[in-house]
């Protein structure tokens, strides 16, 4: 409402009113206020809708009240509340850990350090951090503005204003136009003083010049993004960052996590396979292990459901983490001797493994990925190939192993000791369910030319088997995390491009892969749901999280999938492409109009006099930019964003069109001003005679020029959205006839204004004859063929030496 350009408009229009020219002020002001009103209305409507949808991703807190756990809004937390944390939960208020729980916390958003910090009873925790592994309870102590995060970020958050790449380019264009307009205003002011021009005429000219700046263009782009976000939200994708819409239209590489993204993460135990012990013994030990852990995840919950066991006290615990890919418990139960298992398989391992008493476990028990635990097994251990068979069928495989002596697993308070000399006890195979429409989604990405990457912490063979079931290319190469560790930076860049399936990947490796893809100029989107995806989501150009994922993941994501289905993403990408294409069409109109109006002001102003009045300028702005811009934004076709500078591509469209309009318009204006030139040429005309001739001929020349610019500006709409090959130039026909019908309707409106005296007078235009309009039509036809010739011959690109087709 009160931008710098609008404020200048208000002052100039007020001066016109005070100087007795209210009609010259009303129409330009009406155009500006109409633009402001529509933009503000749309912005308020979009914001209200987004505020409603944003409630879906607001973090919740689990509070213990009246002896039971309940989920509450963070705004309902009071000092003294006891809050429960698990893996992926966000810490929403400051407090102190209580009880015997232990967890590892990511405080990188507060400290910038990515190392996990272990928290136990008495340790402080801070809002804006989140639990990565383990679980604990903490007492709320500092809430709201008193929290550490709010004190640190209060000032910085108020100043934060991120612009998208397109917004930055448009902002630069607006500043350039403002500079040009400012220069012309200074020149006109100096000229008016030098030639003693009437002040009211100077103000009228300044109103026209300030109209060169495309008012509300940047705001219109923001509104288009906001409305696009609302439309995408209706399909199941909540946009949390405005530039996510623009990012969607540029994605060429899409990285997907398997668990929770490609699959539903609803795990079920398929089978257990004992190694060296009986099946009953494996089941007893495994069920006791998962029942005794203080933290749980989807895997342990699935095992506990299939194999219920009795909880036993543990003297040490290492919770599962995506970096280690294993969890461990240390038991110091009393053995009641050992027994020989006659049905145990040997496979190079002694069948006489000590079995704990029915209700007692002793030693270090570890459950995790076979690839990560294999280096820690005792020499000669053999897993008999069952794990590979399960992995090839798409099952998740875990190895359960143990060390007889209860050795502590921590050095001091922080460092974890890796267990050694482990004896394999058995394998666990788990099934996961593919998400619905996964096949259609991957196929849609492939058809869009997007390079797909599956990056997971699971076994590479398992990942590929599931990906192929979902329609992934079966020829895709796979590589594991341990293999990536042996590569240098250059080799990782090559591997990131060549391989399609990445398994047993740590969070740090995910982040490194995204960085490697960036190094190749890729525009990368990353989808995830767990805490292990946070680092890579931050590195990606576009981070996408599942609604059911961790609060930490949703917090850093640009888009949250509210229906937990990434099948909506191809539609969202199409929506992003549609919005960007529409805004580029709008920019073509704005830049073309600004270009030829500025050139005509300079050219005609030098040769004769100022070419427009404020009301004529307002009519041109409304007909050639206002109405078509709104329609083109609404009717835009989705198409893939081209590489390179957006303004460079738009300038290659606008410059030939603007130069041609300027040349023909100048000739028209001069032609209708020939009587004045005759008086100049005679050398005997007095000043009064010249002024009288200008008073008679200048309004008619301005009128004809205004109609010519209106017709050319409307025909530009057909070049922007070509209905046929004739209008397409170097582009493809749109097939959408709505812009064409709009152009025809507005051209009819121009004819009505021309031949209805009341309308002509309203816009400060003089009556014209049919011959005058025929001249305008002929000049517009010449302009059409001249512009087509310039575009087809790529004259501007050849002149600048930027034509890559030669």
Question: What does this molecule look like?
Answer:
The protein is an alpha+beta fold and 806 residues long. The protein has four domains: 4-44 and 162-229 and 573-800, Calcium-transporting ATPase, transmembrane domain (Up-down Bundle); 60-159, Calcium-transporting ATPase, cytoplasmic transduction domain A (Distorted Sandwich), CATH 2.70.150; 237-264 and 435-564, 3-Layer(aba) Sandwich (Rossmann fold), CATH 3.40.50.1000; 268-431, Calcium-transporting ATPase, cytoplasmic domain N (3-Layer(aba) Sandwich). It has 30 helices and 23 strands. The strands form four sheets. The chain has an eight-stranded mixed β-sheet with strand order 8-23-22-21-9-18-20-19, with helices on both faces. Strands 1, 2, 3, 4, 5, 6 and 7 form a seven-stranded antiparallel β-sheet that branches. Helix 20 (551-556) links the parallel strand 22 and strand 23 (559-561). It is elongated and about 120 Å long. The two termini are 48 Å apart.
Report the CATH C-level class of the largest domain.
Mainly Alpha
The first-to-last residue Cα distance is 48 Å
Main sheet makeup? 8 strands, mixed
Tell me the domain tally: 4
Mean pLDDT: 79
What structural class do the secondary elements suggest? alpha+beta
Helix % is 40-55%
* Low-pLDDT ranges: 152-162, 335-357
- How many whole angstroms does the radius of gyration measure? 36 Å
For this structure, what is the CATH homologous superfamily of the largest domain?
A: Calcium-transporting ATPase, transmembrane domain
Overall outline: elongated
How large is the count of helical segments?
30
Strand order in the largest sheet:
8-23-22-21-9-18-20-19
């Amino acid at each position: 409402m009160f931008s710098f350009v609008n404020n200048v408009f208000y002052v100039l229009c007020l001066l016109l009113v005070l100087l007795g020219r209210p009609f010259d002020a009303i129409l330009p002001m009406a155009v500006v206020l109409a633009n402001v009103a529509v933009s503000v209305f749309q912005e308020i409507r979009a914001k209200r809708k987004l505020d409603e949808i944003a409630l879906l991703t607001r973090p919740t807190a689990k509070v213990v009240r009246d002896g039971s756990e309940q989920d509450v809004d963070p705004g309902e937390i009071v000092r003294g509340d006891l809050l429960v944390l698990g893996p992926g939960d966000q810490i929403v208020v400051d407090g102190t850990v209580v009880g015997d729980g232990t967890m590892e916390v990511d405080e990188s958003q507060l400290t910038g350090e990515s190392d996990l910090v272990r928290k136990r009873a008495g340790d402080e925790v801070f809002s804006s951090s989140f639990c990565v592994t383990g679980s604990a309870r903490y007492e709320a102590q500092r809430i709201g503005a008193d929290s550490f995060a709010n004190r640190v970020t209060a000032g910085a958050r108020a100043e934060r204003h991120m612009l998208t790449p397109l917004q930055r380019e448009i902002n630069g264009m607006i500043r350039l136009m403002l500079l040009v307009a400012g220069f012309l205003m200074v020149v006109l002011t100096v000229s008016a003083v030098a030639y003693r021009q009437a002040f009211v005429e100077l103000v009228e000219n300044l109103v026209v010049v300030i109209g060169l700046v495309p008012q509300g263009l940047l705001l219109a782009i923001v509104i288009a993004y906001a409305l696009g976000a609302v439309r995408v939200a209706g399909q199941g994708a909540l946009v949390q960052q405005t530039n996510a819409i623009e990012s969607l239209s540029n994605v060429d590489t899409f990285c997907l996590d398997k668990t929770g993204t490609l699959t539903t993460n609803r795990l079920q135990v398929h089978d257990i396979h004992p190694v060296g012990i009986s099946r009953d013994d494996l089941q007893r030990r495994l069920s006791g292990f998962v029942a005794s852990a203080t933290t749980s995840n989807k895997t342990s919950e699935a095992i506990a459901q299939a194999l219920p066991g009795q909880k036993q006290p543990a003297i040490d615990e290492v919770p599962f983490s995506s970096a280690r890919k294993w969890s461990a418990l240390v038991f110091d139960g009393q053995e009641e001797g050992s027994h020989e298992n006659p049905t145990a398989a040997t496979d190079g391992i002694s069948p006489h493994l000590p079995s704990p008493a029915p209700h007692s476990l002793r030693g270090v028990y570890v459950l995790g990925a076979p690839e990560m635990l294999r280096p820690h097994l005792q020499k000669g251990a053999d897993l008999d190939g069952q794990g590979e068979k399960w992995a090839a069928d798409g099952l998740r495989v875990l190895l359960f192993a143990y060390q007889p002596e209860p050795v502590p697993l921590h050095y001091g308070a922080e460092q974890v000791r890796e267990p050694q000399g482990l004896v394999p006890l058995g394998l666990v195979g788990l099934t996961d369910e593919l998400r619905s429409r996964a096949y259609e989604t991957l196929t849609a990405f492939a058809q869009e030319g997007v390079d797909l990457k599956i990056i997971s912490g699971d076994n590479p063979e398992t990942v590929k088997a599931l990906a192929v079931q979902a329609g992934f290319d079966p020829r895709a190469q796979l590589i594991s995390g341990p293999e990536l560790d042996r590569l240098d930076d250059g080799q990782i860049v090559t591997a990131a491009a060549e391989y399609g399936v990445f398994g047993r990947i740590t969070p740090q490796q995910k982040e490194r892969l995204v960085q490697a893809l960036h190094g190749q100029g890729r525009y990368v989107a990353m989808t995830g749901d767990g805490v292990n995806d946070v680092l890579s989501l931050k590195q990606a150009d576009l981070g996408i999280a599942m609604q059911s994922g961790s609060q930490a993941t949703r917090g850093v994501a640009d888009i949250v999938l509210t229906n937990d289905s990434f099948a909506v993403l191809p539609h969202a990408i199409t929506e992003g492409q549609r919005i960007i294409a529409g805004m580029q069409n709008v920019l073509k109109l704005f830049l073309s109009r600004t270009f030829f109006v500025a050139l005509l002001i300079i050219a005609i102003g030098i040769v004769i006099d100022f070419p427009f009045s404020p009301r004529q300028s307002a009519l041109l702005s409304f007909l050639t930019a206002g109405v078509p811009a709104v329609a083109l934004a609404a009717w835009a076709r989705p198409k893939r964003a081209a590489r390179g500078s957006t303004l460079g591509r738009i300038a290659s469209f606008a410059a030939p069109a603007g130069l041609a309009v300027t040349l023909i318009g100048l000739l028209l204006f001069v032609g209708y001003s020939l009587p004045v030139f005759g008086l100049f040429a005679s050398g005997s005309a007095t000043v009064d005679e010249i002024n009288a001739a200008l008073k008679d001929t200048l309004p008619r020349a301005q009128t004809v020029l205004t109609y010519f610019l209106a017709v050319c500006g409307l025909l530009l709409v057909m070049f922007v959205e070509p209905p046929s090959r004739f209008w397409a130039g170097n582009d493809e026909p749109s097939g959408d006839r709505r812009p064409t019908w709009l152009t025809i309707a507005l051209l009819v409106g121009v004819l009505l204004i021309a031949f209805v005296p009341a309308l002509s007078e309203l816009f400060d235009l003089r009556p014209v004859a049919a011959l005058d309009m025929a001249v305008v039509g002929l000049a517009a036809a010449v302009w059409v063929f001249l512009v087509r010739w310039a575009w087809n011959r790529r004259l501007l690109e050849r002149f600048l030496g930027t034509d890559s087709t030669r």
